[in-house]
Amino acid sequence: MGVQSLAVACGALALCLALTTATNPGFVVRITQAGLDYANQQGIAILEKELAQLKLPDISGKSGKVHYDLSRLRLPNFRLPYSRITPVSNVGLQVSISKASAELDGNCRVKFLLIRSSGSFNLKVENVSIKIILRLGSDITGKPTISTSDCSASISKVRVLFSGKLGWLYNLFHKTIESRLRKNFESEVCDSVAKSVQNKLQKQILTLPVTVKVDNKTGIDYSLVAPPRATAQYLDLDLKGEFYSLAKRFTVPFSPLPLAFPSDHERMVYFGASSYFFNTAGIAYQKAGALVFEITEAMIPKEAGFRLDTSVFSAFIPQLEEMYPNMPMKFRLSAPTAPFLTIGPGGISFQPIVDAQAYAILPNSSLVPLFLLSLVSLDTACGSGAGGSLSCAQFE
């Protein structure tokens, strides 16, 4: 029994380690405080409209001998002059609103002894403060998740103005109504925010795709490989950043390396791409057969004074002049393997392997293969030809 317990414990530990092992992103989006400030400017107008649609419940009560009913409460104006979005370390984002103001309209009915009256009222709310903390995460499909972690709202001043002949009744119970309205309003703000985040924002986020089609051959997987990372200065989105072939998915034979960002945080948004991003693009296009190009004489400028025919290459391969004298040629360039890009402290190195197949174009437009040049890296060329062979040569 002890051995079994030990095995279970070891298995659980291994599972925890596997789940907590971080996957390096192929592409990173960093949003700084300047970027969040810009997003706040764009989003505050939307928030004002959302808050203006708040529907408060009817209020009924009694103050002394005065009975009152307030109904059809609506919020036509909500002004947010001071607001800011800031990152919260290890949580997500905080939305802070201060010195906000609002106006509330509605209908009222008052009963005092045998006196009954009805009319309308206008309520002014001043110096409203709201603080919302949004927790950011990701699901198993790599889509972002968002939820309300905390919310608080406070109001420093509420004043009700009644219309009607019996306005003097207001003085008998206005403090009670103002107090109840303040509490209801503070509660409804946070409830409305939580419902909007859960029922609108989160549902909309879940409809967002995590892949995008680049062209008719490839696409990019930009799903999250980890929950968004928030610090006091910025918010990082770690994306997979992997190209794939639309015809057939393939397994990438290497993993992305860690990315390092500069310490500068003055710009609104930073983008970081590792060699993984570019190298998966090379594999995707190579497997899709897109890394094939043809060179013909029509593509060579006339002022170059160069003709693409067998007479030019007969100096290197004399057999060409004998077998196909003065015939036009074409080259077909292809990549037998995907090109590989390396990004390091010393700079960028590129290691493509290109096969250049030469053809002679016969009078009937048919093609005859002449020789094949294999260009290895940037300074090596090898070739073999029909009826003979060419050795590799190093160019220095």
Number of strands: 22
Helix proportion: 10-25%
- How would you sum up the global shape? rod-shaped
For the record, give the distance between the C-alpha atoms at the N and C termini, rounded to a whole number. Answer: 70 Å
Query: Largest sheet, if any?
Result: 7 strands, antiparallel
Structural class: alpha+beta
Rg is 36 Å
Mean pLDDT: 80
**Would you list the SSEs in sequence order as H and E?**
HEHEEEEEEHEEEEEEHEHHEEEEEEEE
Count of helical segments?
Answer: 6
Strand content: 35-45%
Low-pLDDT windows of residues = 1-21, 379-396
Which descriptors apply to this entry?
396 residues; alpha+beta; 22 strands; 25% helix; rod-shaped; disordered N terminus
What do these coordinates show?
The two termini are 70 Å apart. The strands form five sheets. Strands 14, 15, 18, 19, 20, 21 and 22 form a seven-stranded antiparallel β-sheet that branches. Strands 2, 3, 4, 5, 6 and 7 form a six-stranded antiparallel β-sheet that branches. The chain has a four-stranded antiparallel β-sheet with strand order 10-11-1-13. The model is unreliable at 1-21 and 379-396 (pLDDT under 50). It contains six helices and 22 strands. A hairpin with a 2-residue loop joins strand 16 and strand 17. With 396 residues, the chain is α+β, with helices and mostly antiparallel strands.
Topology, element by element:
Layout: H1 2-20, E1 27-32, H2 33-52, E2 59-63, E3 66-79, E4 82-88, E5 92-112, E6 115-138, E7 144-162, H3 170-206, E8 211-213, E9 218-221, E10 229-230, E11 234-239, E12 242-245, E13 269-273, H4 275-287, E14 292-296, H5 310-313, H6 319-323, E15 329-334, E16 340-344, E17 347-351, E18 353-361, E19 367-376, E20 380-385, E21 388-389, E22 393-394
